[in-house]
């Protein structure tokens, strides 16, 4: 049996009420709110979050590869799945691949992962999808789009949801697109784009898969498929296939918005969170064609600790409202704001970064073999460069074993709120984190309410984008109050 | 067998420029003005200088010793550039003192200067070099780093934010009172507790008036062997101790560092007291110029230098013990708070005030009959820093 062995998802901490948009731009207020990735997140960091959730503490080195799907990749030439795999600590004997250019990328990656497992070239594969599609301000898309990520682990043992069949249609149909150099998504006149695209191609893939397996809508407990930007079309596709409203997985429109490449898989995660053994799910995804999957939930779903994933449900309930549209514009780099006069960021040395990759991207420190002290030498600042050579406690030289801090929680020993530093989300908050099991490090604090920070508060580590400079996206780790 | 520097070296001349936003002065001007005031004070000719040490942190006049030899047109002498963050100026003097004590040179010059206001930044320029790992480290500034001391100090000693801020406000009010009396200070305005407490927050709990200024300035000292000192002037000032303590930067990695003291200051103090033969610093030290980059830093230094007991500095601060006519006057010239902190110059500026106080030439700020004066510089963040402590006397 081949299928999904674990799932994970990620919804950013911040939400923007669609009321805020109508306050600024006028017009009809679309109900609900949208999820907004923080200024220090991108599809790479969000995919890391979802994959980390999906791992649920399992050994990342036992996974044979990672696929990453997005239409908003930070790089055109540089593989992002390799960054994510490094941050997850998967080792290097793995297959990585980026799937871009289509909102269907996540399910194309899923089918490829299933093929690999079926062919026996991989025992298991991590499939991630994340998007931060930036809508043009002032339009419908601005309220409609949201940010999010999802991850599925596929394999042949411990399957919680068997994938019994899948079917794809490729169609070069152009309804919405973004050309090289475009900042925002373009769309053709919606009657044509939807009638000839979404509403025609998606149900064709779904009905073909059903008929291949001799199934009808009544055989399924859930139909899970991504909505188009006109949310009403989602329900109409379901109706046309014979599904009633209760069978249709709700598309997170009121709470998250359309998360592009991540949308369908996020909805599948939400469906699996509620699924019972024996449930059949018709799962489909549209974008330059369509993919459809026949999924059967197994007994395994009740046996694993899968319910402890943050997934959709816990992430949905953990949020902070952005009360200011200008903050959103600033975070998306849609306005040029006056900067504090502070020194420019020093240039990144790719040679230094390569040498310290394990510490920078993997948050590795050392543990002294002589005195047993875990220690994290930072890869920046005064006082030496990571990794440490001399034990900070007993001064033993080069007697260390590797020690990973990324998966350790900690407490906030001291912190400050700095209004002088030039940061995108003032005040600059940083603090010293004392890790459970030993070791201390100095990190920025993110997804925090400055007024709620307290000495001794529990924190967890999260992988974030520090800044973009001279063509390089610089990733590192931050601490955040334990989210949920 | 290692020996103490005590009473082996004397300062026979000093100079100090006005500190401030010196838009009309270059780093060359600051070095020339400070050095020539020192030459005149010592009654020597520039050609008498045997060797020189120049301290600056952000070089602006050229790297190496050339940054001093060029501006002063020193004639083919050995000149070394010293960089030790905020302890730079004192370290330049330390090297000059050791050179004359060793008998290699008869007269040595130490100069510190910094032209921060040419950098164009709000706050202190960052020292981060290029070619890093690209993590950017942690986005913060000096106030952000030192605020973490206050956060922890308030927490440890159960001070409410109001109580803690009020204690710190006393420090700034005291320093501004003194600085208002010094013609070379950058800020010469008396301030009130309420002004300090209500000032805009820079990095909670530190407000604008808890922070020292960012200034330009230069200072210089001329040293000779103690035995020769009286040939130059009747009132030379003797070096009783110069100690440095440079930390292994372990407070950022070890969970036993408490953020309510600075180990380097504590250890440099102990070493300097031993070198100078000071048994009871609170009683024997007649005045101190310490590294008050922020009010909380000064509070903690008072405990680390054993002027106050651990956790009890608030009583001494609010009781006026460190006021100009208190039991142990601290920052009689107004400190970094009023002079600002041109990094390479600050150590020598502190020594300049101590030199003048010991000679009885401090004018309206004169402390009654001080016997020993202490200076203290601290460079870098509290979890790992470089500290210099000097003790001077007659």
Any overview of this molecule?
The complex is a heterodimer of chains A (484) and B (394). Chain A has helices spanning 18-25, 43-55, 80-88, 105-119, 140-144, 190-212, 232-240, 263-274, 300-303, 313-317, 325-331, 350-355, 357-362, and strands at residues 3-10, 14-17, 33-36, 65-69, 95-99, 124-131, 148-155, 161-170, 176-177, 186-187, 222-225, 280-286, 289-297, 320-322, 364-368, 374-375, 400-404, 410-418, 428-435, 440-444, 458-469, 472-481. Chain A is of the alpha+beta class and 484 residues long. Chain A has 2 domains: 3-331, Peroxisomal Thiolase, Chain A, domain 1 (3-Layer(aba) Sandwich); 350-481, no CATH class. Chain A is globular and about 70 Å long. Chain B is an alpha/beta fold and 394 residues long. Chain B folds into 2 domains: 9-121 and 216-238, Peroxisomal Thiolase, Chain A, domain 1, CATH 3.40.47.10; 142-209 and 240-393, Thiolase/Chalcone synthase (Peroxisomal Thiolase, Chain A, domain 1), CATH 3.40.47. Chain B is built from 13 helices and 11 strands. Chain B has helices at 27-42, 66-72, 88-101, 142-156, 161-179, 193-198, 226-232, 263-276, 281-284, 295-304, 313-318, 335-339, 343-358; strands at residues 9-16, 51-55, 79-82, 107-115, 201-204, 206-207, 216-225, 237-246, 287-289, 372-379, 386-393. In chain B, the strands form 2 sheets. In chain B, strands 3-2-4-7-1-8-11-10-9 form a 9-stranded mixed sheet, sandwiched between helices. In chain B, strands 5-6 form a two-stranded antiparallel ribbon. In chain B, α1 (27-42) packs across α2 (66-72) and α3 packs across α13 (343-358). The longest helix of chain B is centred in the middle third of the chain and has 19 residues, at 161-179. Chain B is globular and about 60 Å long.
